[in-house]
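Hi team,

Filling in the usual template for the complex we talked about on Friday. All components are listed, including any nucleic acid strands or ligand strings, so the model treats them as one assembly.

SUBMITTER: L.P.
PURPOSE: interface mapping
COMPONENTS: four
RESIDUES: 1521
SEQUENCES:
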Amino acid sequence: MEALLALLIGALVAASVYLMLSRHVVRFLFGLVLFSNAVNVLLLTAGRVRWGAPPLVPEGLEVPLEAVANPLPQALILTAIVIGFGLLAFALVLSVRGVDALGTADLDAMRAAEPRADAAAKEPR
Amino acid sequence: MKTWLIAPIAIPLATATLLVLGFSTPRRQHAVAFAGTLALAVAAIALLLGVEREGILVVQAGGWAAPFGITLVADHLGAAMVMVTAVIGLATVVFAAGEVDEPRMRFGFAPLVQVLLAGVCGAFLTGDVFNLYVWFEVMLIASFALLAIGGGREQLDGALKYVALNLISTLLFLSGAGLLYGMAGSLNMADLHQRLPALGQPGLIAAVAVLFLLAFGIKAALFPVFSWLPASYHTPPVAVSALFAGLLTKVGVYALIRFFTIIFPREQIGLDGVLVVVAALTMVTGVLGAAAQSEFRRILGFHIVSQVGYMVMGLALGSPLALAGAIFYTLHHIIVKANLFLLSGISKRLSGSFELARSGGLYTRAPFVAVLFLIPAFSLAGFPPLSGFWAKLLLVQAALELAQWWVVAALVVVGLLTVYSMTKIWAEAFWKAHPDGDAAWREPLAGRERVLLLGPVIALALITVWIGLWPAPLFELARAAAAELLDPTAYVAAVLGGGTP
Amino acid sequence: MSSLILSTAARLLVALLLLFSIFVMLRGHNEPGGGFIGGLIAATGFALYVMAEGAGAVRAVLRIDPRKVAGLGLACALAAGLIGVAAGETFLRGLWIELPSGKVGTPLLFDLGVYLVVLGGVVALVLALEEQR
Amino acid sequence: MAADPHDAPASRAARLSTGVGIALALAAVVAVGRAQAGLLSGSSRLVAWTWFPDLGPSLAFHLDGLSALFVLLIGGIGALVLLYSSRYLHAHPDVVRGQIFLTLFMLSMLGLVLADDVILLFVFWELTTITSYLLIGFENEKPGARRAALQALLVTCSGGLALLVGLLLLAHVGGSFRISEWDVGVFTAHPFYPAILILVLLGAFTKSAQIPFHFWLPNAMAAPTPVSAYLHSATMVKAGVYLLARLQPTLGGTDAWFYTLTVVGAATALWGSLQALRQTDLKLALAQTTVMGLGILVLFLGSNSALAAKAAVTFLIVHALYKSALFLVVGIIDHASGTRDVTLLGGLGRAMPRTALAAGVAALSMAGLPPLLGFIGKELAYESALALAGWPFLLVTVLVLSNALVFAVALLVAYQPFWGPPPDPPRTLHPAPFAMLLGPLLIAGLGLAFGLAPSFTGHVLIEPAVSAVRGLPSPVSLSLWHGWNAPLALSLVTIVLGLGIYRLRAPLVAATGAIAARLPWTGDRAYDATLVGLQTLARIQTAVLQGGSLRGYLATSFATIVVAIGGVLAVHRAFAWPTGGESVPPTAWAVAVLILAGTAVASVTGSRLAAIAALGVVGVGVSLLFLIFSAPDVAMTQLMVETLFVVIASVALLRLPALRGPELRSRAGRTRDAALGLAVGSVVATLLLAVLTVPLDPMLGDWFVRQSVVEGHGRNVVNVILVDFRALDTLGEITVVAVAAMAAYALLKLAPPATRPKGDRR
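RESULT (copied from the run log):
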């Protein structure tokens, strides 16, 4: 089971890298979203998956009767998902503003901070 | 005493919350931010003194014993880093009050700085891998915001590159945390220190270690993944650049030092050679990059890369002296580099441009600023008797003791190239007459602006000189920190309460 | 988009979602749910409302800047942590008191903080995006 | 000329800076002069304070004959130069700055010769480099001055860094950072000796302008004349000589030391004197003879004989005195007539008799004529050269030739401007004030006085220094008259030859000029070529590594991931396939297929909406996966986040340019990116698969499940972890959310960049 998940993660990562290397800023964002998803599944997988009950304690008991899924990876993933959401939303807005300001969605054309002429530094005087 | 351990995280967070909920005028925001940062500095001093007096301090957040809850730990390294964070925080908060424009203030500049400080302090104090990830993210999102808001084309372009590569770093870090948990079943650093060797999987551990090396390497701007830094650090307001230049890459360096001593001790993972080569290439490519630039802040940006190489070289060499040298280097560099960025802002304010070709005349017009520039500039270049000299000396001495001759050569040659690229700024912005002649004359700093802009610069320069003239106390601190890292017995005992649960 | 039916439906839906979100948050300590999910549900409700009625209407209903809601949430969470310190325990120590209806403790205050941050944050984002259009 | 700025009263700051500097200089002279009596017997004084105990360096100072001699020169000449420059720079707006730098330099130099600790010595060594840099660049708005300053800095700094390593090795071998604590016998036989020698000599040769590093010194004449007189003839350039003298007991006495110093010194001496003859700028002529003088000093320090040490120390004094006096004279000429070009000067003697007197006395010493100290120095040099092992004939020839050339230069400097034919029309003169005359007169006079009192000079000044250089008591007695002997004959040859060279100057200059022009490579050109090469390398490297495009940076990062992690996995053969575990239920297969399908569509579609929808499908799929694996909270959160993200993305992305149209990447580019993507994916999957074979200790999870109700008072374990067990994570996390929202809000609301002026980076 875990092997299947590992391969799935590999596929997600591969696709996300392919998208991130695109010249279009939107595709880059899509790649980021996929990568983020892949890492969340990786957390789940690395924490081992198990069929069975979710990590809930039935009412009136102190500990669950049957074996439950490992709750720690779940908590970590939850945190990671929410953080990822914040970061991705920001990246999205930043891209929108960047495209507005720079007048292009082509990543290769976005070089306001590092203009080409800059590479030819002048001799010190 | 232990209450102080949470203070460096709670104080800036509380200050940020206060700033969001009230105090709407920029002046009041500056005042509250200053008060909050001052409180942070007091807490940092108390923490450092506490560590000096009582040794490693530990708080189990929420009262849950390690390794189940999250442990906050202040050892010498963590406390020293928090201290220097507070210093840089104070300097930039004051400088920002004289520099940052009103729209940025309206849109949360002040609380963002506080959140950044909280994130940085959290990263320095946590003893938990996943919690470190969380503080990295806090720091990161605050830095994204500070970098991007209110910016024009350049700033947005720089921010995009910064965000993109840092997000990759962060996802690698998260994957690493997951894999580490998946192998060792723990996230507590002290616990991991004990568990990993017992797994009997040196190859796998090395591979995961490399994953962390990559994640933190991007963060710290190591060769060949440093490009986001020179692409972005020259774009935001100077107070932000200074904060970033001083602290953010150094959090990456800190994490490398922390991980590659306590979690992945060098003798276990056998990556020394790789790390030495990476450090050397970082030093060389960074300084050559600086040599190719002709813009004040871009030169400084590339210098960060080169200097991070020095710090990582200390880690890579790995002897007690080398590690102490790396820590000494980090602490010194935070002060000096932040100061240089602040000075670039003063230079721009007085001469009208960051472009060296478009500036000049400061030596004649602002001799005091010129002196203030020379101190951190020569310190960075490693001239005695300034702090940077000792930092380099410690590493050279360490490399000599280990008979790493070509490392010595690299340390020395890169030092010379640093001198070269640093004097370029001096010759162009300070010595050379301004190309526009008297027409370029900007009004001199006066009144409130003078105090706000020059005050932090003077303070940081004094620290540089003080460390230079009297290096022994800082070195003792660095050595104590290195000793704790190289033999984590005390660290483990303090965190886990003496035994494995 | 502002047809009467949609507008009315949206209002109803928002009210329902808000109620539901509070329910989800409160039961979160014992059943699936909690501050995150609750906050997200509530935010989704507002997002719907924004789409139906426009940003101005939502601002009018909210009265308070959503960013301040988020700030308030952060304040709640911090306060929940600091109560522990004030009581002489460590930061974020959970302190509980027994009430007839069940136990109430600082972790619940903390969860409320999470709820408010998520709600305020997402609504601020949606509003800004909508107002930019 | 009513309002001549030279006649204005000095500002308070200028007077203060001059006064403080002179007071410090005199204090040093007096203090050491009082101690001199004790040093006659060859003893020395030590003081030390702790400084950096953990590493080793201490604030240790050491006064012996050699340091004392240097202190007297530095302080004595320093006081006079400061007085002189207060008038010379009088009208300069930066006079205070100049005086401060000169004083700082003097203090650094004093520290250098007094330091016993090698690190302390290096600190002062570098401080002289820095002050020299600032002083050469004194006329900072002139590009030539800036270039010269940088050149001097880089050349001496590269040597300095070599020296630092050398000193550290010395300390390592000697077991102490204190020179006085070394056992001088252990060094030459140590395996590090060759390395130490090379490194130390690099430091000394760059500082003391030895071939092939000599070129920076003439260029440094861009500095104001008092600076040249002080730093670049009398003191700083002698720091290298001082170092060699100081280390001769430890490092000297070997063939390597002897031949290197002798050959380099001789070559430098010859080259400098040849170059000196060619100059028409008086200052440059003097600068080149300084190169020659430094060569002579290095040459004599090569031998460890008492005679050579005596010759070296005597010539050190001779050179410092006549050279600084003549520099100051040239400054007066420049100040008075507005030029230093010897072809434009003549007949000044009548108008400036006192200057002419100073010049004459100093030049006689330079030419090596009796009864000046220069004569004694030259005689000693010949005597010592004749006694040297090796090839005395060659050395003597070099010495005679150099001295003859210097003789001619002395005539050029001290005769031609004063007594040569006056230019037509005569230049207007501006007489120098007495403060400027005092220095050259006194210093030149000392050269005469020391020559007339040879026993005092030998016994009080030279003997303690020679003893210190040799590391053993070495009695010295000097006399003006040695009787009729070989050195005297050589002196006569020198004079005749010198007069001849002076007469035949024009053709000689032409001849040497022609040779020099054919030289393929000079130090100066090599320096330029090095800098150009460095710039080119830097540019190419930056273009490769920092191309300015995000995609390049991303590709680098991904490739690094593949190489680094893949490499380690391959080296350790850490490949494994997890066995056992749960079987794959059909639902999981279905969800996996769903996710893959969404991924595929998102990767290739040209439509934004389709891509967003596909990503939504992936998100829902992942959410289902969480549900399948018993993570309801995560599943719900994922679902809600996905929904919100789709909403936000639709709103935001519709404002961006369409995806449709030609894919911007070329086909080859796509193939390459796909390959890179596959590689990264494989590495991640491989790593994960290997990790999954390590059995997981479920201790943490089990503990949380057990404690959730008991300690956390909640039945949803995940939630209890989030708000209690690991609430600190959550605190950070909600901070991220709050800040992200604030930041996005600010980005969207804050003034659009179009309304901001272009290029504004604030």
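MY TAKE: Residues 143-174 of chain D form the longest helix (32 residues). The longest strand of chain D covers residues 45-50.

Thanks, L.
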